Amino acid sequence: MFQWILNRDLTSRPDFQGLVFGLYRNGYIATYIITVTKTKDIILNPGLKYEAPHLDGHVQWKGDLSKSLAAFQISHISQEDQMQYGLMIDFGALKDSKTSFVSLQIQGNRGII
């Protein structure tokens, strides 16, 4: 499970729009996987089956915005899932969004870092 503890000041800002979890490449989220809005709606990327078919149907939101917790789980993990994943906190089109990323490394048949 990927888990980020968010600064409460970020999620309580009036311009907070939500957050996006996706594949991180070249300094930004290149492929959106899941969007969670400030009203806690969960939106899955309908194009994921074309953009990253190995992740389609394998990623779930496990967080709680009221606790400033962003958490995502990838099920049925494989070597193909070894890549960088990112989180973007969205403050609207004209605002400075915050981004963070993590790299998933798989070792052997069972070891995940």
Brief sketch in words of this structure:
With about 110 residues, the protein is mainly beta.
Can you describe what's shown?
With 113 residues, the chain is mainly beta. It has one domain: Immunoglobulins (Immunoglobulin-like, Sandwich). The protein contains 2 helices and 10 strands; from the N terminus they run E-H-E-E-E-H-E-E-E-E-E-E. A hairpin with a 7-residue loop joins strand 7 and strand 8.
Protein traits:
113 residues; 2 helices; three-stranded antiparallel sheet; 10 strands; mainly beta; Immunoglobulin-like
Number of helices: 2
CATH fold annotation? Immunoglobulin-like
**Based on helices, strands and strand pairing, what is the structural class?**
mainly beta
The residue fraction in helices comes out at under 10%
- Name the CATH architecture: Sandwich
**Spatial order of the strands in the main sheet?**
4-3-2-7-8
Question: Strand content of the residues, in percent?
Answer: over 45%
For the record, what CATH class applies? Answer: Mainly Beta
The total number of structural domains is 1
Q: How many β-strand runs?
A: 10
User: What shape does the CA trace take?
Assistant: globular
Ends apart, CA distance between termini: 10 Å
Rg estimate, integer Å: 14 Å
Low-confidence stretches: none
Order of helices and strands: EHEEEHEEEEEE
The overall average pLDDT, rounded, is 88
CATH superfamily: Immunoglobulins
Note the main sheet: 5 strands, antiparallel
